[in-house]
Amino acid sequence: MIGTCLCRRVKVAVVGQPGHINICNCAYCRKAGHAAGLFPESAVEVCGETRSYVRDDMADPWMTLHFCPTCGSATHSTGTPEHPCDVVRVNVRLFDLGAVADVEARFLDGDAVKSENDPFPLIATAKYGHGTTF
Ligand SMILES: [Zn+2]
Ligand SMILES: [Zn+2]
């Protein structure tokens, strides 16, 4: 399936559906508007120009936020050079709502997490795309 940013200049194509979607209350996810579906790198293709941002308010950030430079939509997240990761966190908000309906949404207390190795406490689960998660 293929998702797009708001202005449609960036397209993100993925193979299959994410096993689950992380909806997290940390500053990164809230401020970027990121609802993360996890995919292996090999299952994701990004077309179009993106820019990236690594938090400069953390001593050792482990995520790189990619976004459309025209409309500002967050498109996906990857690791950093210091913290490589073979998983791409695609912002499932790029897809039509029905495209990821019924995938499990996991609400995470990421705000409590202080390092990449800490567990993300699970607060609740729901099915994505049924009026409770968007
Ligand atoms: Zn855009
Ligand atoms: Zn988060």
Short description:
4% of the residues lie in helices and 37% in strands. The protein contains one helix and eleven strands. The radius of gyration is 14 Å and the shape is globular.
Describe the largest sheet: 8 strands, mixed
Beta-strand proportion: 35-45%
pLDDT averaged over residues: 93
In the sheet with the most strands, the strands line up as 6-7-8-9-4-3-10-11
Report the CATH C-level class.
Answer: Mainly Beta
Rg, alpha carbons = 14 Å
Task: Examine the secondary-structure arrangement and name the CATH architecture.
Answer: Beta Complex
**Succession of helices and strands:** EEEHEEEEEEEE
**Alpha-carbon distance between the two ends:** 18 Å
Describe the oligomeric state of these chains in a short phrase: single chain
Low-pLDDT runs: none
In terms of structural class, how would the helical and strand content be classed? mainly beta
User: What's the overall geometry?
Assistant: globular
Number of domains: 1
Please give the structural blueprint.
Blueprint: E1 2-4, E2 11-14, E3 20-24, H1 27-32, E4 36-40, E5 44-47, E6 51-54, E7 64-67, E8 74-78, E9 87-91, E10 104-108, E11 122-127
Parallel strand pairs: 3-10
Antiparallel strand pairs: 1-2, 2-5, 3-4, 4-9, 6-7, 7-8, 8-9, 10-11
This protein binds zinc ion (2 copies).
